[in-house]
Structures are given as structure tokens and as C-alpha cells.
Amino acid sequence: KYAVITIDGPTASGKGTVAHRVAKHLGFHYLDSGALYRLTALMAQRKNISLDDEASIAVLARALPCRFVHGHVMLEDDDVTDDVRAEAIGVAASRIAVLPEVRKALVDLQLSFRNAPGLVADGRDMGSVIFPDASLKIFLTASAEARASRRYKQLIEKGISANMEDLVKDLMERDARDSTRAAAPLKPASGAIILDTSEITAEQAVNQVLEWYAE
Ligand code: CDP
Description:
This protein is of the alpha/beta class. It has one domain (3-214): 3-Layer(aba) Sandwich (Rossmann fold), CATH 3.40.50.300. The protein contains 11 helices and 8 strands. It has helices at residues 15-26, 33-46, 54-62, 81-85, 87-96, 100-105, 107-111, 126-130, 144-157, 164-180, 202-214; strands spanning 3-8, 29-32, 66-69, 72-75, 78-79, 118-123, 136-141, 193-196. The longest helix is centred in the C-terminal third of the chain and has 17 residues, at 164-180. The protein binds cytidine-5'-diphosphate (CDP).
């Protein structure tokens, strides 16, 4: 069994950036588990499967034809790197993520990312459900305002217009859905260290995680 660092937390907490940089620094593999939920949602949409058809979506999830190649996300032969990041797919992903059979169907695929020399896994339930024996578990959080303003900057940089009020509202709705669902609700895993990034930069967060890992 190889070392695993789990980084869980709410939407736009900076998990993706921090997890990716920690993985790069240590030369570890990186699992973006949210991408698997997004890919499943995208595939369901493409196949015209209703987002509450639990059994059919679980079948898709169990044999997800996806590959991660040099930062690109492939679904069958299509490069869907941009498509999976779309806001509508994030919303669809959070809808199918409440379905227990879909969560179960993605377990083996997530476990398969654990390889030499180690793994950094980013998501909602990495430390609680998928890798409960992780060497280091982090719960990354930030205030709704800090998260909304980060998302705002990302959108503006991409040339997409955005409005802070709507972003804060969306974040709160997504938080409520992620934390009140019955299947793997978002909460710190037992043994997780809580890291609030409202007042620190991504670089400081990365250094803090590396320091804890080295301890
Ligand atoms: O951008 P954001 O952090 O919202 O999205 P993401 O990490 O790509 O995940 C998309 C959705 O998948 C989230 O809203 C969660 O509801 C769900 N998810 C989950 O339930 N469990 C995970 N391990 C990862 C994502």
C-alpha cells in the first residue's frame, strides 16, 4: 500500500490547486475525484439518461471510459477537459453524487489511482470513505466570501462574466446539498486537520500541507 494524502473540502475551497501542487512537489499521483462525478454526469447527459435514474447512471459510472492524459480529460475519444469544468456539469455532478449506487460504482476506479510512489486525492469523502487509512487527511475550507471571490477571479480571467452575489448564493446552495445528503455528506474525516485558507495564499496552504506530511 502506498502513501495517500487526502484533501477534502467544499466547493471552491482551493482543494484542486493545493492538491495538484502538493502532488507535483512530492512526485505523487493525483486523483481529482470530482472529475469522475463530472464525467459520469456528462456521459449521462450525452446519452439522454435522466439525472435521477440511479441504476442506469451507476452502470455508466462502473465502466467509465475515461483517461487522464497530461492534464487533459478524455471521455472515449473526446477531449472533454473544458466541457467537464462547465458550471452546469458541476451542478449535474452534485445531483448524481447524492445517489448511493453511483458513489459505490466509482469506488474501484478511485482506489486504482493509488500507485507508487504515492497519491494525493482531492474530493469530499477521500479521507472518510475511500482512503480511511490515509497518512495525512486535510479538510480545506474558506469563508463563502473568500471562495466566491476566488471563483469570480477565475471566471473573469476566462473572459466569463460573473456576479459576486450570484456566486455566493450558488456556493451556499452547493454547500447545503453536499452537507445534508445522506450518502457521504461533506464533513471532516475522523483524524482530519482543518486548514482554513480564507486568509492565506495557495502557496502558504501547500507549504503547510507539506510540513504536516513531513512531520
Ligand atoms: O468545483 P467543485 O469543487 O464544486 O466540484 P468538484 O470537486 O469537481 O465536484 C463536483 C461535485 O461532485 C461536487 O459538488 C460534489 O457534490 C460531488 N463530489 C462528491 O460527491 N464526492 C467527491 N469525492 C467529489 C465530488
